[in-house]
Write a structure and sequence with these properties.
By secondary structure, this protein is α+β, with helices and mostly antiparallel strands. The protein has 2 helices and 6 strands.
Length: 119
């Protein structure tokens, strides 16, 4: 199984009751592996394929390719919604849920935009 480390992308349903409409969507790990191991939860920035026009300042566009042959393995235009932070139970993440990973520079951009929304 892939490791849950910062920048890893996996698919899940947001546990947030106010957003997401129960849709399965990509999520970007922002937790440290030590925190994940101690809590059994992974903190994520949730992603969306619904992109506002104009794009919001808090959203970060992610690399993608229609054939899935990008490092992220995303197959359509996707944004990290950096004001949508969630915690997902590790036990609910299955091997088939794993996608790709972000390069360090893109992860740092996501973290920079998410910083003010982390509690």
């Amino acid at each position: 199984m892939a490791s849950l480390s910062p920048g890893r992308i996996f698919w899940a349903v947001s546990t947030s009751s106010t957003r997401g409409n129960g849709s399965r969507r990509p999520m970007i790990v922002i937790s440290d592996p030590v925190d994940i191991a101690s809590t059994g939860q992974v903190r994520v920035v949730v992603c969306s394929t619904k992109i506002s026009k104009p794009k919001r300042d808090v959203d970060v566009e992610l690399p993608w390719a229609a054939d899935g042959k990008s490092l992220t393995r995303l197959r359509e235009r996707t944004i990290a919604v950096c004001d949508w932070i969630d915690c997902i139970p590790v036990a609910g993440i299955m091997p088939d849920d794993y996608a790709g990973i972000l390069k360090r520079a893109k992860l740092e951009e996501v973290l920079s935009h998410a910083k003010s929304h982390l509690s």
